[in-house]
Amino acid sequence: MAHLFVRHPVKDYEMWRQVYDEADALQEEFGVRSHTVFQSADDPNDITVMHVFDNIGAAKAMAEAPQLREAMDQAGSRLLRPFGSSTRSKSHEPG
Fold first, then answer.
1. Residue range 42-66: average pLDDT?
2. Which residue, 64, 92, 70, is CA-closest to 4?
3. Could you tell me the CA-to-CA distances from 54 to 27, 32, 57, 88, 92 in Å, in that order?
4. Residues 34, 78: Cα–Cα separation, whole Å
5. Which of 3, 15, 59, 79 would be a feasible disulfide site paired with 53, CB 3.0-4.6 Å?
6. pTM recorded for the entire structure
7. Are 55 and 86 contacting, i.e. CB atoms less than 8 angstroms apart?
8. Which residues pair with residue 95 across a beta bridge?
9. Each residue of 14-49: pLDDT tens digit?
10. How far apart are CA 43 and CA 35, in angstroms?
11. Are 53 and 31 in contact (CB under 8 A)?
């Protein structure tokens, strides 16, 4: 599994969320297996999104897709940090 993390501020979370929720076809096209949206406890317009893919190639393809940049612009994203992708090296789950 590979993960793509994007942390960025948005102009308005509700507006961003509407566009994000309408981007299901884009996520399906690039093979997103699951996704999670996190909001900062201090600023609801500071978000981090995690997408899970089968492999790092799929994650990088989505990160570089012009369609993703267009959707982010439409959603009012003010991307300050570059995309980051990773594969899990080790995890620990109690129990």
1. 91
2. 64
3. 13, 8, 9, 12, 20
4. 23
5. 59
6. 0.77
7. no
8. none
9. 999 998 898 889 899 999 999 999 999 999 999 999
10. 21
11. yes
Nearest to 8 by CA among 75, 61, 58, 70: 75
Polymer length of the chain = 95
Exposure string over 37-60, b if 16+ CB within 10 A, otherwise e:
eeeeeeeebbbebebbbeeeebbb
What is the 8-class DSSP label of residue 17? H
Distance of alpha carbon 74 from its chain centroid, rounded? 15
Name the residue with higher pLDDT: 46 or 69.
46
Contact 87, 35 (CB under 8 A): no
Residue 75 region by backbone torsions, left for phi larger than 0, else alpha for psi between -120 and 50, else beta: alpha
In the chain the domains, ranked by start, together with CATH numbers, are 2-87 (3.30.70.100)
